[in-house]
């Protein structure tokens, strides 16, 4: 038991923390909940509901905060472990956080006339949704070759700053392309309805990319972080299936459900990250406290064992 505890306290990265049976059950329970929500939604996905324009900006504001905090936590992990796989995830979550901003500004009715329009919003949504699967694929591929004993090169602070600059420029470039350069892109919207480009190309492609990320990650699944990311990919696939085959119009039940999948997944992943990182550093703190106590006890024993000087 002591050897197992020592092994756990030596783990400082969630990408290396072994998953427990309880954590597997938690992931399976959440996956079952999402699958049940999907099954309930599908028969009524095309039912048109009142257009709550404020719903989408509210959801995306929460997602922005969640993904930004998740990115910061992952960057902190990278600064400690120098893991390229963790860096890829941090970049991916930063990307999904930043690209939410132009998508929210272009969403029809939310900020009318401020930035872009329906076509811009649709394209930004698909650029946004591709971020997490792409980051997960890179994370899984790099994770198989990432080694804790690999010598660190360069400054972690410099690497982080450069990655933030690159992601910011990428988001600005995509924002320009989907607004000022929207005429260069195929049409994704026809009024409030999605075009055939969305139904037969964009959504199926999104499903394929998320499925690839799921399969690649499934082949790696050795840490608690891997299981959480599998859950995120599972939720994304359900989201895309609803959008591709059942919800073909904005403000339908399927439209609201897809945003709900995005929100729930974002909140769950962040909550689990916070919980496991807190547990991880709690174990490290307890280990250090035990070492301090053992050192203090040895010093006390050493003092007691020293012969006392006699006085005449």
Q: Specify the number of helices.
A: 10
Count of individual beta strands = 2
How would a textbook summarize the main sheet?
2 strands, antiparallel
From the spread of the alpha carbons, the general shape counts as elongated
Q: Helical residue percent?
A: over 70%
**Largest sheet: spatial strand order:** 1-2
List the domain count as a whole number: 1
Give helix and strand order, one letter per element, not per position: HHHHHHHEEHHH
- Rg (CA only): 24 Å
**Quaternary structure annotation:** single chain
Average pLDDT over all residues: 82
Q: Would you identify the regions where 5 or more consecutive residues have pLDDT less than 50?
A: 1-9
Which structural class should the secondary elements be placed in?
A: mainly alpha
The amount of beta strand, in percent, is under 5%
What is the CA–CA distance across the termini?
Answer: 53 Å
Q: How is this structure best described in words?
A:
This protein has 312 residues and is mainly alpha-helical. Helices cover 73% and strands 1% of the residues. The chain has helices at 2-9, 21-41, 55-81, 84-106, 118-129, 131-143, 156-179, 196-220, 224-245, 253-305; strands spanning 189-190, 193-194. A two-stranded antiparallel sheet has the order 1-2. Helix 3 (55-81) runs antiparallel to helix 4. It is elongated, with a radius of gyration of 24 Å. Residues 1-9 have low confidence and may be disordered.
